[in-house]
Amino acid sequence: MTALYQSDRADRATTLTVSLATMGAAVTYVVGTVAFYDKLDLLGWAIALLPFPMICIAAFHSLLVNLTGIRARSILHLEQALLDNVETDTPRAPATSLDRTRIGVTATEVGTNLHTAPMPQRITILIAYGGVGVVYLGYITLMLWRSARHLSGWVTVPAVLYAALLFPIALSWRYSVMALDLRDLSLGSRAGRGR
After folding, report:
1. Per the structure, how many domains does the chain have?
2. Which of the residues 21, 71, 87, 187 could staple to 182 if both were Cys, CB 3.0 to 4.6 A apart?
3. Rounded to an integer, what is the distance from CA 189 to the centroid of its chain?
4. How far apart are CA 80 and CA 100, in angstroms?
5. What range does the domain containing 121 cover?
6. What is the per-residue pLDDT across 17-42, written as a single tens digit (0 to 9) for each?
7. Helix-strand-coil split of the chain, %, nearest 5
8. Angle at Cα 92 formed by Cα 89 and Cα 95, nearest 5°?
9. What is the DSSP code (8-state) at residue 104?
């Protein structure tokens, strides 16, 4: 079990590091371009291209969330299989004295997963991810509005293009969040759904 937990901890730390690094890059990019907002007209129609890196970062983050869900599901399957054989000689007979919601990966998922966390934690998760989404959409809107001076009616072309790119990204985010729903692994019944 120790090797399993160390591997999971290393995977989570790597994913968090990559996630924070890309978020740092995104914040720097937004602050950098907004800081020179009054000079953006020098770019002319190219202002409409400024949101594209943010869309790429949003797509990358949806992949990271999906990867997190896949890893959590995998590690929980392994943890359950190992714990099912603890304190018993009978395979598939659950250990009776272990509270699985308080140990290992299950404890982490119960406390931090959008689908199983206590309500204050769920609200915090929604604020964190929703806030990022609002910033991304606000930035795209602001840059398209600014580029409209140079593109006139043609601003609809990048607007439609960005909408076309955001649609599959939104679907990917939805799928990734659904992949994090680990209640089908008995996590929800052990944790008590929706505290």
Report:
1. 1
2. 187
3. 24
4. 9
5. 2-191
6. 999 999 999 999 999 999 999 999 99
7. 80, 0, 20
8. 65
9. H
